[in-house]
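User: Run a structure prediction on this.
Assistant: Running it now.
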Amino acid sequence: MSTWDATTYEAKDNLLRVVRGEAERFLALAGDPDRWTAPTACPGWEVRDLVGHIIDVTESYFVGFDAVRGGGQVPAALGVRVMQTALDDGAKALRSLNQDEAIGRLRGDFDRLMEMCEALGPDEWRGLVVPHKYMGPLPAFFYPTFQLMDYGVHSWDIRQGTGRAHGLSGDAADLLVPFMFILWQSTTTPPAGAEECRIGVRINGGNNAGSWRITAGPGGLAYEPGAVDDLPATLDFDPGSFVLTAFGRSNAGTITGDVAVADRYLNLFFRI
């Protein structure tokens, strides 16, 4: 359905609706004075570091949009390999902010970016190409989608840190499903001389249910929708489990077929 395909302008209102809901939940969690320095599911990060991280990345988006709108220049993309270290540095550099300052700044950044996304027209949603600090030129629709990743997954990280049972929002997971293949594609790191791996992924349920054929090896990762019954192994997920697995938050999924192939595939990725 087009309203659940965030690459299409028809999904804009639905995507922004879900992003706003996830952002409000995140801000409510992060605004609890008793949680500010509590641990999260992100190793080495407290709640305040998640807030600092989203400030850091959101303000980097403004640099890209300002360059496009004003004809300015941005530095060359840094690449995804350095993201783990660079994002850690960016988040922790903002520990000097107290909780009220950080939450206020983040809310202001969020409101500003949502206004920018609301203003995107049908031609700009896919046609406006905005430089990303790490990934280089990307269509504009990626930026509200990145906000959904940040607010949705990092809300999960805060809740996970409490030790209470919880889950990922169905609407957020559904919208993120197609982008998890891009995440895998961007973070594939097969060892030298690795054997090519062919595997199927089935998403069972949700608005982006379907099956995909994946080939991964020294040449990178390629994927396409299609039947998967003829492949050596398949992985079955619900949308939330798929998103959390792709982000390295959990080891989920049901393996059918060659377990060794699935194991090799699931360990091809570096974390960002």
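DSSP finds nine helices and seven strands in the chain.
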